[in-house]
Specification:
Layout: H1 2-14, E1 21-25, E2 29-35, H2 45-54, E3 63-68, H3 79-82, H4 89-107, E4 112-117, E5 120-122, H5 124-130, E6 134-137, E7 142-144, H6 158-166, H7 168-177, E8 180-182, H8 183-189, E9 194-195, H9 199-211, H10 215-227, H11 233-244, H12 248-258
Parallel strand pairs: 2-3, 3-4, 4-6, 5-7, 6-9
Antiparallel strand pairs: 1-2, 7-8
Length: about 260
Amino acid sequence: MSDGADTFAAFARSLPRGPGRVHVRPGPVAEVVFHSSGKHNALDAGMMLDFGAAAGLLADARVIILRGEGESFCAGGDLGAVEDYLGAPSIGSGLGGFMSRAVADLRKLDAIVLAAVRGPALGGGAELLAACDYVIAAPDARIGWVQARLGVSPGFGGGGHLVRRVGSARAIRLLIEARTLTAEEAREAGLVDTIEADPVATARAWAAAAVALPESALRAAVRVVRAAGGPDAAQREAEAFASLWGGPDHRDALAARRRPR
């Protein structure tokens, strides 16, 4: 996969750069913002390169908020931008490998990844949403696993994340029905965790509370959750706990509880 992903990256760099961008705003509370005016923030090749570089800019992030500019989250890949390359299977495999790796790189950062969703999250956009730890959607959000209607399957690594979120039976139903869900339907299906009038403001407030916690404990909690279900999950959880026990953050927290109020 790595070779194909690298080949796709070289191919994407050879193309004329379109107007779309993925803006990365680093910091303890970081934001990754999809921006492609008039296309519901669909990702062209240049935007995919931006997204692939995001993890390298976010080493200090403890919470990462994925969102779209304006009234859309992300409508997946920009179909118009890739239509000329449908006759090259290597482009498809490389694109999928590149985006799967980009998502995996974000999840390796031991940072909580939130999605703040307005409007459509379709195809690859739904896959990006499913890779997040927590999804906050506006009432107007529309989540569509519509890949089958386009004659393809999930390509950004989203199939595994979908199963993790909703289970295999519901995942196959969503993929085969290939319809667009309302925010409430998506919550009932397990794709959305909460519905809020302003998902971006809610995500920022949630993130601010999270980064007020000791950093070591927050990152350990993320590692424990990500390891859940794996063959060594219990061991990794025990190791995380042992690494924090009696440490500076633990001692400071206990001392603070003893101070007069």
